[in-house]
Structures are given as structure tokens and as C-alpha cells.
Amino acid sequence: MAARNINQEIIEDLYTEALLLADDARAVFDLKLGADSDGAHDNVRIALSIEGLRTTTRVMHVLAWLLNQRAYMSGELSETQLRRHNSLPEERPADPVNLAALEPETRALIRESEDLHARVARLDRDWRARDAASAPPVQALQGRLAEAFGAR
Q1: Which runs of E-coded beta strand occur in 11-147?
Q2: Residue 48: which of 20, 65, 16, 26 has the closest Cα?
Q3: Domains in the chain: how many in total?
Q4: What's the start-to-end Cα distance of the chain, in Å?
Q5: CATH assignment at residue 62
Q6: 65 and 88 in contact (C-beta within 8 Å)?
């Protein structure tokens, strides 16, 4: 149905990109700062910890969404299961204060993860909009109510 309109090649490309980004994030946020810590190092370590958690969580949410799409396309999930269990959580953007403490390469990686999340979020919104438009009236009303009350 509507989910099949998302091109499988796009899903596979995004999945590959997300896997590479997850590996890059693991490497970047592997906290290997020296044991000697002054105030500046502490601030960098805190910023790395916070933004590392946000970035890896963001990428894992994207990967989970993509894995569910792949499972649906291969017949492992029904359309009802996909609709019920495959919503992409809202984005939690990086803190500008933390970003300022990080190296340019780290900031670029964080932005890359935010961009990937935004692209997948657009796919998710488009898929849900098409799905809601084609749903029977009672189901469409239930979907709108669930969305209004945060059940989706």
C-alpha cells in the first residue's frame, strides 16, 4: 500500500549511509582524552558526552526506522505492524554551546546526523500523510485522535 511507494533503493541507500554514520560517530565520540583534566578538558568531555549521546541516539532511531521499512518491504512486517510501530521520534538538535566546544570535524558529523534525521523524518511524514489520506474514514479519525493525544 502507501509504504510501498517509498522506493526500496532509497531505503537501502539511507540504511547504508546511516550505518557508515553510526560507525563514524562511534569513532569520534570514543572519549580518549587524557586523564589529566583541567576546566577546559572537562567542558570538552561534557560536550562530547552530551552530543555523542544525542548523535548516536539520533542515528539509532533512523536505523530502527529504516530496518522496519526493510522488514516491511521483505514481507517480515505487515502494513498494520509497520503503521503501529514505526514512527520516527522527534529530533533533538545539538546544543549550540556544546557545539562551540567541539572540533569542526565533530560538529560536521553532528550536522550530518541531523541532516540524515531530517531526510528520514520527511519520508516518515510523507508516508504517514499518504497513509492517512487513503485510510477508511473511521481509521483516519482514529489516527487523527491518536496523533492529537500523542499516542502515535
Answers
A1: none
A2: 26
A3: 1
A4: 19
A5: 1.10.8.930
A6: yes
Range of the domain at 46: 2-148
Q: Residue 11: which of 109, 19, 113 has the closest Cα?
A: 19
Q: How far apart are CA 135 and CA 139, in angstroms?
A: 6
Q: Which three cell numbers stand for residue 140?
A: 483516519
Q: Which of 116, 120, 122, 133 is nearest to 55 (CA)?
A: 116
Grid cell, residue 132, equals 492517512
pLDDT tens for each residue of 2-46: 444 558 899 999 999 999 999 999 999 886 544 455 556 888 889
Here the cell at position 73 is 518491504
pTM of model > 0.90: no
Q: What share of the chain is helix, strand, coil (3-state, %, to 5)?
A: 75, 0, 25
